[in-house]
Amino acid sequence: MSSNSLAVDKSGNLPSYLIDEGKRKGILAWLLSTDHKRIGIMYMIALLSFFAVGVTLGFLIRLELLTPQGTIVNPQAYNEFFTLHGVIMIFIVVVPAIPSIFGNFFLPIMLGAKDVAFPRLNLLSWYLYVVGSIMILLSIVLPGGAADTGWTFYIPYSVRTGTNMIFTLTAVFILGFSSILTGVNFLTTIHRLRAPGMGWFKMPLFAWSLYATGWIQVLATPIVGITLLLVIIERVFGVGLFDPTLGGDPILFQHMFWMYSHPAVYIIIVPAMGVISEIIPVFSRRTIFGYKFIAFSSIGIAVFGSLVWAHHMFAVGMSNNAEFVFSLLTFLVAIPSAIKVFNWTATLYKGSIELEPPMLYALAFIFLFSIGGLTGIIQGALNVDIYLTDTYFIVGHIHYVVFGGTGIGIFAALHYWLPKMFGRMYNKKVAKVAFWIIFVGFNILYFPFLILGWLGMPRRSYHYLPRFQVYHVIATVGSWILVLGLIIMFFNLLKSIRSGKVVTEKNIWGGESLEWQTQTPPITENFVDIPVVNEAPYEYKQNEEEFLEKEEVL
Amino acid sequence: MEENKVQHVHTPGYGIYFYVWLALITLTALTATVAGVNFGKLSIVVALIIAAVKSYLVLTEFMHLKFEMRAFRIFVIVAILFFTILIVLLFSDYSFY
Questions:
Q1: How far apart are CA A26 and CA A28, in angstroms?
Q2: Beta-carbon contacts of residue A547 (< 8 Å; ≥ 6 apart)
Q3: pLDDT number for residue B95
């Protein structure tokens, strides 16, 4: 696999990772590859396929809710739809998305390394991911049907339902392992494989966000793994851990479930924040404002975010002490999140802003994530939350944070890095049109959720009162617009991979981090010579003369 | 053979393992004994302190944490701290009276 043994093409470039197959040929050169870039692409293919399944389910849920009574499916199918939509979107799509696709592909390059610390473990994590994901799809077709408990698997219903719970729980357990392995891999890579000269504070902020995420993945995921195993034990042996009829404590399950699943929200959002921290300085041609604050706020979010889980449980009858403590801690998480938003906007100030597609998505992220974050603060207040618990307000909030934050963050990353990954540029005009359709459709779809929740519409409900119908119709129309935008966006990106304009220049957007200093698409070992890092990231040469002077000195 | 010698540079004699084992046995006996004494609300604290000392011995001596890099020790400490905080916060929801 040594790059020296590979032929150099006409233009003097080494073959890219897409051409250099290594020892094996054809499909096996992908399936057995330990190259972090190929694994990243395999994650992308698998993950975006499941995203399509999740979107289809969401689309059908909205179609069902067009009328107050049954529209297209029966109540049982509806329950399975929203459970699968949640399980697929959370555990298969947004939790692994940015670390597994873009982290795998770009973290080693950004650090100036040849690969992640444990390449084989990396491949194993992809296989675990695929096995877990396929098990969830199998649970739909096997006798018994897909789980119908909602993605939170609340006890006691998850013990009593006749659906394929064990299958689904095992699948999520396996997906958790995949996530832990990715976390361990990234933590070790960041600790051990930084290029010479790259101190902690010369790392790109995307690496910092993956570092914070890695810690949550390693520390919190085992808790949900154990919890889901305990539910399986409860179902099979009826030992009475959680089931109140056997003397168990159902609230204990909720505690243990949210101990992971709330930090999981930060596994979801922090890498997206890292992507935004990369894109904003590049397209405003300014050094990022408050580098250290953004880096430490990622860690701050990871720490505080791990300690707020019980704010999902204000209405279940916890002790007053617990409610007070968790409400307070919840408000504290807003601080590091707000630091990031303020620093991004401060970076934009007096910048030379270019509204390229990645930047449009990054700006949409700030806008939508702010709505998501502020609606979160509303629910962090104890008294208001009692009223809003299990209404559409929470559904609107989670979609603004998870889709408006991470989903849009994934799209931003796709538009930012895809040309680098494949050496082909998409049609920017079509990308911008798709962006506006997605942005408009998104808000028409999810904003009515917030109003509906405020008016008292319960979540996960098959029937609803006729007075809510107008908002449901608006939301359903919004889902059509959103899906149209998604189809245009993905069609444009896929077309670019097949037949887009070939890009060979190294630095496509004028970025300063290391991935823009290697060949497009990168060679198998990322760099011909391991780079030496002398300056902090995001040092834009705003003054041309200063830039030339520096060049002369070098 | 040479390699083995290099690897065993940090290995203390078997004596220390024996003493640690003895300490663990003694502490176990202590736990069993104090379980019969009524400390009231403090009984769980006493049991936990003894258990903590035992875990410390196992981690540092048997699991060789004493000889590991500082980074590993920090990793373990962070994990334990995190776990402790989780338990404390979780128990804020439970009443023991």
A1: 6
A2: A541
A3: 66
Taking residues A496-515, report their average pLDDT: 91
CA nearest neighbour of B57 among B13, B93, B27, B89: B27
Residue B43 lies in a domain: yes
Which pLDDT score is estimated for A14? 82
Query: Nearest CA to CA, how far is B17 from chain A (Å)?
Result: 30
List CB contacts of A445: < 8 A, sequence separation 6 or more.
A62, A399, A475, A478, A479, A481, A482
Interface residue ranges in chain A relative to chain B, Cβ cutoff 8 Å: 191, 215, 219, 223, 251, 255, 259, 306-307, 310, 318-319, 321-322, 325-326
Instruction: Tell me, yes or no, whether B97 lies in a domain.
Output: no
Examine residue B36 and state whether it is found in any structural domain, yes or no. yes
Interface test with A, best of B70, B74, B77, B89 (most A CBs within 10 A): B89
Mean pLDDT for A383-396 is 94
Show me where the domains of chain A are located. Answer: 3-553
As for the ipTM of the complex, it is: 0.70
Instruction: Please return the burial class of B40, using the count of CB atoms within 10 Å of its CB with bins 0-12, 13-18 and 19+.
Output: exposed
Structural domain range at position B74: 2-91
Question: Is the pLDDT score of A4 beyond 80?
Answer: no
In the predicted model, what is the mean pLDDT of residues A3-22?
Answer: 70
CA-based nearest residue in chain B for residue A184: B75
Residue of B nearest to A254 (CA): B90
- The answer, yes or no, to whether residue A545 has pLDDT greater than 60, is no
Length of chain B: 97
CATH label, A3-553, candidates 3.40.50.920, 1.10.645.10, 1.20.81.30, 1.20.210.10: 1.20.210.10
DSSP collapsed to 3 states, chain B: CHHHHHHHHHCCCHHHHHHHHHHHHHHHHHHHHHCCCCCHHHHHHHHHHHHHHHHHHHHHHHCCHHHCCHHHHHHHHHHHHHHHHHHHHHHCCCCCC
Q: Read off the pLDDT of each residue in A103-109 and give the average, rounded to a whole number.
A: 96
Kindly report, residue by residue over A307-350, the tens digit of the pLDDT: 899 999 999 888 888 888 899 999 999 999 999 999 999 999 98
Number of compact structural domains in chain B: 1
Q: Name the DSSP class of A391.
A: B
Q: Judge whether B96 lies within some domain.
A: no
Give the DSSP letter of residue A245: G
User: Inter-chain contact B89–A325, Cβ cutoff 8 Å?
Assistant: yes
Q: Would an 8 Å CB–CB cutoff place B96 in contact with chain A?
A: no
Closest CA to A511 of A541, A552, A482: A541
Q: Where does the pLDDT of residue A8 fall: very low under 50, low under 70, confident under 90, or very high at 90 and above?
A: low
Give the tens place of pLDDT for each residue, A280-297: 999 999 889 999 999 999
- Rg over CA atoms, chain B: 18
